[in-house]
TrEMBL record:
Pfam assignment, any one: ABATE
Residue ranges annotated for the Zinc finger CGNR domain, each copy included: 148-191
UniProt xrefs under InterPro entries: ABATE (IPR010852), ABATE_dom_sf (IPR023286), Znf_CGNR (IPR021005)
Superkingdom classification of source: Bacteria
Gene3D superfamilies (alphabetical): Jann2411-like domain
Annotated protein name in UniProt: Putative RNA-binding Zn ribbon-like protein
Amino acid sequence: MKAQQRRPVLRYDDGGWAEAIGGHLALDLVNTVSWRLDPDRTVDRLPDGAALARWAEFVGLEIRSRVADETAVEVRRLRERIYRVVHPLALGADPDGADVARLRRLLLGGLGRAEVTSVMPLELAAASLPDQLALAAWQLLEREDAHRLRQCRANDCGWLFLDRTKNASRVWCSSADCGNRTRAQRHYARRTTEPR
Ligand SMILES: [Zn+2]
C-alpha cells in the first residue's frame, strides 16, 4: 500500500488547524473558517492582519510588507463572497444572482489592477493580497469544473474542495480527520443506542 502523502498543517493555539485541502487557493481561502456548519464551534482563522500574514505564508503567497488589519477585513469580505457563490455550486445548486453580482464586482476590481505577465495564454499577477486572492477566485470559476466541487461530508465541517480523484469518489476534506471522526461518532452512536 502506498503511504498517504502528508500535507503540511498550520496549527493554532486553541488546538485547531488549517490544512490546504481545497485543491485550489480560492477554496483554501474559503476554508479559513473552521466548523462553518456548527455555529457553536465556528472559528474565523483570519481575525486580523497578523493571522492573515501567517496563513498567506502557509499557502505560499508572497507578502511584501506587514499585513494591515484592514487587509484582513477586505480578504474576509472576498472570502464570504466566494463562499456564497461556490457553496451552492458544491451542493449542485445555482448561486443567487445577487451573490454572483457582488462577487463579480470584487473580481473585476482585482482584474482591473492586475499586471499582464503573459499574453497568450493570458496570465495575470496582482500585488496586494486581496487582489491575488480575487485572481485565484477568478481562475477557480473560469478554469475548474463545477461538478468537481464538494463539501466535506461531515455535518459540522463545511470545508470545500475540488475532488480531483479519477472516479470522483472523495467525500472528506481529510479522511484522517473528518473521515475518522465521523466513523468514530457513528460507532459511538450505535453503541449508546444499543439496549443495555
Ligand atoms: Zn471535513
